[in-house]
Amino acid sequence: MAPLDGFGDPRARVIVLGLAPAAHGGNRTGRFFTGDRSGDWLFAAMHRAGYANRPESVRRDDGLRLRGAYVTAVNRCPPPQNRPTTAERDNCLPFLERELELLGDARVIIALGSFAWDGALRALRALGAEVPRPKPRFGHAAEVRVGELILLGSYHPSQQNTFTGRLTEEMLDAVFARARELAG
């Protein structure tokens, strides 16, 4: 499969940033968070928050449409052993930087996990945004202004987090509610 592009509303005020396409999800279907359990959680939450027209995404042509939101990832290809590397991140960052430039209406980035949080900070710094010092630490519901954008952290909706209760539907819904509030 070729590297994946982000998708969604080009006038999005909220960007949802993952870490990479899943081998049996985005890599198989050609769209981030599509056809896997992480996507089931993510799109259900986006639907409840009013950002998606349907609560699931099973294939690229399933009719899913995003309103006010855009979904992308730091890495564009599935990583070996499902563990993204810093070298892959660094190779893919220019693509994320370009997306951020093109999504000029964005006000909030929801980083799904610490890898996405770090990737967002690196991309924003490369675009000239002043990243606070010391570097802001990732955490669920962590929030920091970076230039014109607010970076909002959420645990990734992976099975590891959802099966153990580290991330609940209520927690994810609260992050999307906060993003809507911040995005105006």
Concise description?
This protein is an alpha/beta fold and 184 residues long.
Provide the fold topology.
Layout: E1 7-8, E2 14-18, H1 26-29, H2 37-48, E3 69-73, H3 86-102, E4 108-112, H4 114-126, E5 143-146, E6 149-154, H5 159-164, H6 169-183
Parallel strand pairs: 2-3, 2-4, 4-6
Antiparallel strand pairs: 1-3, 5-6
Helix pairs in contact: 2-6, 3-4
Q: Which bin fits the share of residues in helices?
A: 25-40%
Largest β-sheet summary? 6 strands, mixed
Element order: H for helix, E for strand: EEHHEHEHEEHH
CATH class: Alpha Beta
Rounded to an integer in angstroms, the radius of gyration calculated over CA atoms is: 15 Å
Count of domains: 1
For this structure, what is the CATH homologous superfamily?
Uracil-DNA glycosylase-like domain
Enumerate the spans where pLDDT stays under 50 for 5 or more consecutive residues.
none
Query: What average pLDDT do the residues reach?
Result: 92
Shape by Cα distribution: globular
